[in-house]
Structure formats: C-alpha cells, structure tokens
Amino acid sequence: MMKKIFSISVFFIFLTQIQALDLTDTQSTLADIFPSSVDPNEGTTVFRSMNIPCGGRTEALGTAFSALCDDSTFFDYNPAGSAILNQTEISLSHNAWIADSALETLALTRRNGNTGYGAQLKCFYVPFSEYNLYGDRVAGSYYSETSATFNLSHTFLAGYTFRGISAGANLKLAWRSVPDYTNNRDDSIISGSGLEQSALGIMGDLGAMASFNALKFYQDREPNIKLALTLNNFGASLTGFGSSIRKDDDTPARISAGFSYRPFARLMITSELRKPVLLSNFSSSGKLSFATGLEAKLTPIFAFQCGFLLQGANPRFSLGSEFDIKGIKMDVAYTLDLTTSANPVNHISLSAKMTFGDRGRKATMAQVDQLYLEGLQFYSEGYYSEAIIKWEEAIKKAASSPLCIKFEPAIQARDAALNFNKQKSKLEDMYNISFEEY
Q1: How far apart are CA 35 and CA 313, in angstroms?
Q2: Beta-strand (E) ranges in 181-266?
C-alpha cells in the first residue's frame, strides 16, 4: 500500500515540473462554451493577492472552502472556521503562481471551548525589473503585497446533535510595496517614487457557519453538512504616501455562500457561489463565480482532491493529494489555470500543516461517554436514582471546558428517568404501594 501511495505522490510531483502546456485551442474552445461568463468589470480592484489561494488542499478543492474550513487555511474564506477546528494547528504554504510570482503563507489557529482565534501572515511577490530606452537593466527589486490577519470566532448553541452556529470576524492589514523607479534622463533612481504608489489596506471579514447531520450513511460524531455565508475583504485602501495621501481603488470585496456535504466517511463534496462587490459603485460589480471540489480519502493517511473554478469565461481545474502521518499533513496541488492568465499556465502549490493536540477534548468526551453508559447500565437494572446521578455528571462535564456542549443524550435520558420517578411517586401515593428498587 505504501508503495502505491508513493507512486501517486511521484506522479503529482512530476506534474509540478511540466512547463506551461500549449493548450491555446482548448482555451479558445472553453471560452466559446462560457461566453456569458466574460466579465468586463474584472480587475478593477486593488490587493488582488487577497484572492489568490494559499495553496495545497484549498486550491486542489477549487477554492470552495467557506463551508468546509476544517484546517488552518480558513482565514481567506470564512473567519468562523477557528471555532470548529478540533486541533491546534500551524501551517506553512507555498504557491508558485503565474509569471514567476509566488505566495507564502504562515498561519496559526487555536480553540478554547467554543471560542477560536488565530493569526495569518501572507506575502505575495513578483520580480520587478526596469529597463531604459536602450534595453539596459537599470533597476531590479520586488513588487509585493503583504497582509496580516487576526481572527476571533465563537460557536453558539453548541450541542451533541446540532453542532451550533459559528460566527467569526477577521481584521486584515495589508501593505502594497512598489520599488523605486528611475529617472528616464539619467537612469538615476528617484527616491520615494515607489512609496508614492505603495498602499495601505484596512479590511475586515465576517462569516457564519451552521453544522449539523442529515442524509448521513456512516457512523461518526462530526457533522456531515455545513452551510456558510461570508463577507470578505470589505474595507478601504490608501495610497500617495510621501506626498498627498488619498483613497486608492476599491478592495476586492465579495459575498460568498457555501455548502459542504459528506455522505460517506471517505467522500466529501463542497461548492460555493461568490459575488464580487465594488464598494464605490455596486452596479459595476463583477459577475458571479462558482467553485466546487471533491475529496476522496483512499486510505487513513492518504486523500485525493479535485476541483473546478469558473471565474470569467475560462475555468480553472485542479488536482491534489494529502498525506496525514502522525499529526503532520503534507499537501501538493497542481492547477491548470485558464482563469487568471493570458495563456494557459500550469502552477503548483505545497503546504505543510502540524497539529498540536485538541487540548483534551477527545479524552473528556470519552469520560462523558463512560458516565452516560454507566447511567444506562444502572437504569436497565432498575437503579433509577443512581442512573440520574450519572447522567447529571455527564451533562455537567460536557458543558464545562474544554467541550462546552449541550449533551442531549444524557439530558433526554435524565428527563425520562425523572418523569418515571414522578409517575412512580404518584402511583405510590394513589394506591399506597411501595415500588422497591432491586
């Protein structure tokens, strides 16, 4: 089995070495299939790197992630994600984007009870070279967009059956760095010229997610359906530093609605609709885009993903895989990108995620289960008072940290036993008969 998994991994790594495919005819055909998706308002916002996926599993799923958010890449999709993560997690991602550009991402997330929090640092960069009229290189540096995201979320009405509604918010600070350029007369670098075109972005995200079970054909405690609604990158950007500060173009705001469904333990489907929002002129906002992804867990340590994104007339196809070995997850994704590039471009992304435990949630849940089962045992033997005590202990332990959930099975069993005792007391009073426990 390990040999097969290794062979699949080599296949994906081999794909990452392929040069851009000559798929001009294919791209033209796809553009003919989706002519109504051409968006004349595309590219009218700044800080476009906010829309670039950090890579790995997220990109392999076609970026349809707002209603999944089961790892630390949730920051760019739904800020409510930190409140549902079971594990403390650190991730590092590298996305080799188009035209020699790249995106590096570092993220940390943690959860206390029903409250999650975390931070993310992203840097998008591309070489910036300037040439004079004679073709001589006179300046070379990097254009970059760096952002820091701070997250806080909480789950309300958390229970055993219905996992509750999670809500969260992100605060984003972004900086666009433009290198200084030269004077055309003597090729001397103009000090501060790059700062004049640099920009500061202040943005925020809001997100909500509901998690529950329905049409579930396997046994597991994790909810198999999630619904999400998010507002991303709403804010403003300022430019003109060094002279007169002024408002820059709009930030890449969008509204997203997502859905994820796991019908079987090893199969998951996710999809998402997005509507770009031009804050200064809503009527000129971009068109709807659609993303979908599928994940099949072939073995306990290996999963395969594929995805599709339609944003504009040309789609984006992606494939990926994930290995999970002793708390370390390695992801590799390959994307045929006909959406963001003028020519068909293949690019790759890699990510590594490390988990650092669940802060005792699994062990505490095992204790709750044990108390509940002991209560059932007492009840089956006729010791109703002792059963109620055990169920009360289970309810109390589940409601305390680190679980902080409403444990409905024990609540229902306790209430049934209390009602039985109540009816038994009425019968004893009515007929003056004593019903002894065994």
Answers
A1: 6
A2: 199-212, 225-239, 246-247, 253-264
pLDDT tens track for 170-227: 999 999 999 988 777 777 778 888 899 999 999 999 999 999 999 999 999 899 999 9
DSSP 262-316: EEETTEEEEEEEEEEE-TT-GGGPPPPEEEEEEEEEEETTEEEEEEEEE-SSSEE
Q: What are the tens digits of pLDDT across the range 232-279?
A: 999 999 999 988 899 999 999 999 999 999 999 999 999 999 999 999
Q: Are strands 102-112 and 89-96 parallel, antiparallel or unpaired?
A: antiparallel
Half-sphere exposure of 428 (CA within 13 A, CB side): 9
Residue 130's identity, in one-letter code, is E
Instruction: Give per-residue pLDDT as tens, 51-79.
Output: 999 989 999 999 999 999 999 999 999 99
Task: Please give the Cα distance from 270 to 261 (Å, whole number).
Answer: 6
Sole residue written with tokens 């994940």 = 295
Residue showing tokens 């188009």 = 98
Helix, strand, coil tally for the chain in percent (to 5) = 25, 40, 35
Report the length, in residues, of the chain.
Answer: 438
| Full-model pTM | 0.87
Residue 219, classified by CB atoms within 10 Å of its CB into exposed (0-12), middle (13-18) or buried (19+), is exposed
For residue 224, the one-letter residue type is N
Question: Under 8 Å CB-to-CB from 404, ≥6 apart: which residues?
Answer: 113, 114, 158
3-state SS record for 45-95: CCCHHHHCCCCCHHHHCCCCCCCCCCCHHHHHCCHHHHHCCCCCEEEEEEE
Phi and psi at residue 361, to the nearest 5° = -65, -45
Residue burial 296-325, b: 16+ Cβ < 10 Å; e: rest: ebeeeebbbbbbbbbbbbbbbbbbbbbbbe
Tell me the C-alpha distance between 63 and 255, whole Å: 14
Helix (H, G, I), strand (E, B) or coil at 423: helix
How far from chain centre, in Å, is Cα 255?
A: 15
**CA torsion, points 390, 391, 392, 397, in degrees to nearest 10?**
90
